[in-house]
Amino acid sequence: MGEAEKTPEEFQTNTGKWKAFLWSYLRRYRLRLAFGVAFVVARDLIGYTIPLLISIGIDTLAHSPRETASAGVALVSLGIAAAALPRFAFQTAARLSLMSTSRNIEYEMRRDLMRHFFALDASFWSRTRVGDAMAHAVNDLNAVRMMVGPGATALFEGVTALPVALAVMGWVNWHLTLAALLPLPFAFWALLYAGRMIRHRFDAIQSLFSTMSAAVQQTVSGVRVVRAFVQEQNETSRFDEMNRSYAKSNRELALYSSSLDPMLAFATGLSVLIVLGYGGRLVLEGSLSVGDFVMFTTYMALLSRPVSSLGRAVNLLQRGAASVARLHALFAQRPKIVDPGVSGKDSGAAPVPLRELQFDDVSVSFGKNVALAGVSLRIPFGSTVAILGPTGAGKTTLARLIPRLLDPSSGCVRFDGRDVRDMPLEQLRSQISLASQETYLFSATLGENIAMGAPSASASQIAEAAQMAGLEEDLRAFPLGLQTIVGERGVMLSGGQKQRVALARALLRRPRILVLDDTLSRVDAVTADFILRQLRHASWSQTTVFIATRIAAARHADHIVILSEGRVVEAGRHDELLASNSYYARMARLQNLEHELATL
Ligand SMILES: Nc1ncnc2c1ncn2[C@@H]1O[C@H](COP(=O)(O)OP(=O)(O)OP(=O)(O)O)[C@@H](O)[C@H]1O
């Protein structure tokens, strides 16, 4: 199986390179990150001088004469107060550097993810659920931001404070310091164990969330079908099962996440206990001053914060690592349709106008399913070609080959002798308009939907395209005309209206090659006839390739092609095909009969 065929889940097992992937984003901010870390270190270094100052203050009180003691204590107090200012400054600078970096990285990854989504082709989207993609774009990116910002801050809070405090404590009394470190292996084990568990659970939770988002998205989009087939109960219990398992995994994650802090607090508590017991004895024996003892215990108390920071860091870093691995797996997906791009000498040049279209022994297979088998066609520029054939004959597959939404498994699609695979995608697609079988309308106005492929079109151009697509009467019936909001996926329009909006969208670009994939199937015969006449008399020259189910639509085409089981079985003009005992002639007789019956 090639890389492109792997699912994100399969990539997840190959997460070795996710660190390099993350670094590719971090690298740009390494200076800012280094400053951020330096600010955290500086802030904590200043913070950790405070117990030292307290110790000096206490020992000054205990050992100095009364008149100098109060001045000494005042000086120490001043020192403690003065330390607050740079601490605050470093704290703010650290937050600004690390948090702004995390926001920038989140922004860049999201931007790249959107670009990547657009670059991935139908082969990816046919096996990926929309909800899945949404989960990546929202939840995983959020976890990455939390890792780079608060996670990194917490990590450096922990790792700088610990050695500083331990160095000062060791310098005062290394015996007592070693004794205080006895619970360290337990804390270390807790960090590793909980960290591993958090990562596994979070990974599972993110996958479950993806599945659940996909299910919500599908059920909500298909709510009419669910209602029509009285499947509310079944859908609810199916969703409930997923929801329950999601909640269970979250409870487990919460258990591991929340157990980390108490376990670390327990380890710190044990250390404090050791220091109080053993250190107290040292004070009584006179081998440790009261000031040093107080400093020791203050450090121990102060250490609880960085230790807890380490716990938080492990939590956020493990979640972030799971999400980076998932994102990396997604970014590792490659589109099958590769854009050859524009070569240096062609950049900036106007695209070469497309003229003659040729299918040269084209075959397309989806696994074992052969959709097209050795199709050869030559379509001169400016001609109108109708493609007909039974369902599953390969008509849509043929249409999708023209703008390279699909590549042939063998054979070649050419424009003026040039393989479409050698043409820059932008140049190819900018000259071709495909109105596909399933129209997709955005939740915007009618006008905005029509202008989707030509955002700079003027109002009169939009109105002209709408008129050509036979929408004029419908627009008159809408009080807001082109400003009418069509609702999510165009729910406020009839099937035929949606198809004509999609057709107007295709026409507005005045394409050189117009491909209509059964675009008029839900339009009544009279309107369809009107539209086809409009297309024949368009004010610009174009090739029209249209897939039709009705003979009435195909009769005026310059060339009619009948596909069956992926092969061209008949081809010719309307009267030529009618004269023979062909599939076309049989279909014409049948449709005539239907028409007569309907008239009766
Ligand atoms: N993405 C795909 N993956 C697998 N098989 C596919 C895919 N797209 C099409 N096929 C198969 O290829 C064959 C041709 O499909 P195609 O959509 O081109 O037929 P059609 O003539 O347009 O049919 P209809 O008139 O019903 O729209 C069918 O057997 C279909 O199941």
From TrEMBL:
Keywords: ATP-binding, Cell membrane, Membrane, Nucleotide-binding, Sugar transport, Transmembrane, Transmembrane helix, Transport. The chain crosses the membrane at residues 33-58, 70-90, 154-172, 178-195, 253-276. It holds the Pfam family ABC_tran. It is found in: Cell membrane. PROSITE patterns: ABC_TM1F, ABC_TRANSPORTER_1, ABC_TRANSPORTER_2. GO terms for cellular component: plasma membrane. This is ABC transporter related protein. The keyword ATP-binding applies. The keyword Transmembrane applies. Its main location: membrane. Belongs to the ABC transporter superfamily. GO terms for molecular function: ABC-type oligopeptide transporter activity; ATP binding; ATP hydrolysis activity. It is a multi-pass membrane protein. Residues 34-319 form the ABC transmembrane type-1 domain. It comes from the Bacteria. Residues 357-590 form the ABC transporter domain. InterPro entries: AAA+_ATPase, ABC1_TM_dom, ABC1_TM_sf, ABC_transporter-like_ATP-bd, ABC_transporter-like_CS, P-loop_NTPase, Type_1_exporter.
